[in-house]
């Protein structure tokens, strides 16, 4: 890496070398049977250069030919992408406990056994199609740049997910568990899946209309995707956010507090610096419904005359190869503050409504404007405080800036989901369309 930086600085004004070394083992079960075991090691390096105010970018998995990497970065300057920022000098960063050595000893066999155990537990109690997967990952990141930054981090993580899919459909009950090293999934999670599945095996066709909707963690991407868009500095710069000039205004219910929590090493994948080498800090986006902050990477911070908040990450909503992605503003450690009622208490408080377990088409609708229109996948129908069955072929629609003004209750527990760590949120007066 040092040699690449030295070579780049002979022909450029500024340069950054980013090294990413992930090692992982993944296991997948389909129909409660082992489907695949895969082991990967895909180390790579990417180079960002700034010359005459223009950005060059290239990446490789082959460090033998450094000249080619630099040439590709120089050639990319022809794209005339502006880079008005400088790479940061970062020295003193938080010392986090992000790596657990015991994960090195966890084998694919142990992961298979745990997945098999979960399948057996679910098979005994239900008739659903069972899908289970797990992955252990060890990641090493290092960033050096022309301002003198040289920082690195090692982290470990283990994640396991399970789905109970209803017969004749593609939707079901899904739960996710994560830790910094291997751990058996708690029985309470498996039992929760079984109980919800059993209570919703009957298919019913209730009348649609405005009603209470309980957004479960696995469907929260419907709301969080639009929150991310509305508070992203890219959206602010492009003038497509409806809340661009509303810092200090009450946007949501006072029950809603949204924050990014990168330094909390109780959970896996905590970060002391982002993928641009900027120091990470906790950031509150909404505090009791009031808009407090947007989030920035180096690029959009410069464009908007602000400071980076340490949210420049090489990631994508649709996945992808980390080293091939340029940094952009992202909330990678998103949480919504939990409330004070259990899931059971919230359900008992519902006279009539829908539990949105999963959302199909969360990307549909005008995301920058906050609009959503999603298929229930699945939806559990509640009457008089009890789940009475499952709803098929239904839609939930609205706008987050209206929906999150009508929050009734928030669950007291954070759950792992694909968009962060979320509690269930009960909202009133949400439009639900059904066959009836």
Overview of this structure, please?
By secondary structure, the chain is an alpha+beta fold. It folds into 2 domains: 2-195, PmbA/TldD superfamily (PmbA/TldD fold, 2-Layer Sandwich), CATH 3.30.2290; 200-436, no CATH class. It contains 9 helices and 25 strands. The protein has helices at 2-9, 66-75, 108-125, 187-199, 221-231, 233-237, 298-303, 343-348, 400-403, and strands at residues 14-30, 33-41, 44-51, 54-60, 129-145, 150-165, 172-179, 203-204, 209-215, 258-260, 283-287, 290-291, 312-313, 328-329, 334-336, 352-356, 359-360, 371-376, 379-383, 386-391, 395-399, 407-410, 415-417, 420-422, 425-433. The strands form 5 sheets. Strands 8, 9, 16, 17, 18, 19, 20, 21, 22 and 25 form a 10-stranded mixed beta sheet that branches. Strands 1, 2, 3, 4, 5, 6 and 7 form a 7-stranded antiparallel beta sheet that branches. α3 (108-125) runs parallel beside α4. The longest helix is centred in the N-terminal third of the chain and has 18 residues, at 108-125. It is globular and about 70 Å long. The chain starts with a helix and ends with a strand.
Please tag this protein with its features.
PmbA/TldD fold, globular, alpha+beta, 436 residues, ten-stranded mixed sheet, seven-stranded antiparallel sheet
Portion in beta strands: 35-45%
| Alpha carbon gyration radius | 23 Å
CA-CA gap between termini: 63 Å
How many domains comprise the coordinates?
2
Number of helices: 9
Low-confidence segments: none
Protein structure class:
alpha+beta
The helix content, as a percent range, equals 10-25%
On the 0 to 100 scale, the average pLDDT is 95
Which geometry do the CA atoms define? Answer: globular
